[in-house]
Amino acid sequence: MILDFFMGSATTQAVAHKMKRQYIGIEQMNYINTISVPRLQKVIKGDQSGISKDIEWQGGGSFVYAELAKENQEIVDKIINSNTKEELNEQIDALLSNGVLNYEVDFNEFINTKKEFNELKLEEQKEVLIRVLDSNQLYVNYSDIEDTAYNFTEDEIAFNHSFYGGE
């Protein structure tokens, strides 16, 4: 079993696939759909780069690709992509109503310091808001997969149960 926590352009996965090894690739960057997945699709179709000629690779096989369901990460993405303080203020409402806040944050004190918060530069405001969120809740936990608040489909729930060994 090959485990690669920094999948990048999927070189390790391509070689493992061609050598008929089981593999898991993990990538946190957003280029997985433009670089990593297309590369593995080419490998399956018989791509002749790398070790292909040495092992007489003809293509074949399959792979499973999945993304983690975002929870607080959705709010973090919107905070990062805010270009003005006005846009950022819209995210404050989402954060306060939908976000899972860091247990160390005194919610009342956060509300009471709004004047000081508004005086901060945009990048400083972003940092504060991201730190207010519970970083342990960036993604939905498997144990919450059947929570109706997340609106997962029956297929998504079934896939997760099969992936994690069923229940």
TrEMBL record:
GO terms for biological process: DNA restriction-modification system; methylation. It comes from Staphylococcus aureus. Signal peptide: none annotated. Residues 2-32 form the DNA methylase N-4/N-6 domain. One of its GO terms (molecular function) is N-methyltransferase activity. This is DNA methylase N-4/N-6 domain-containing protein. Keywords: Methyltransferase, Restriction system, Transferase. Pfam families: N6_N4_Mtase (PF01555). Gene3D superfamilies: Vaccinia Virus protein VP39.
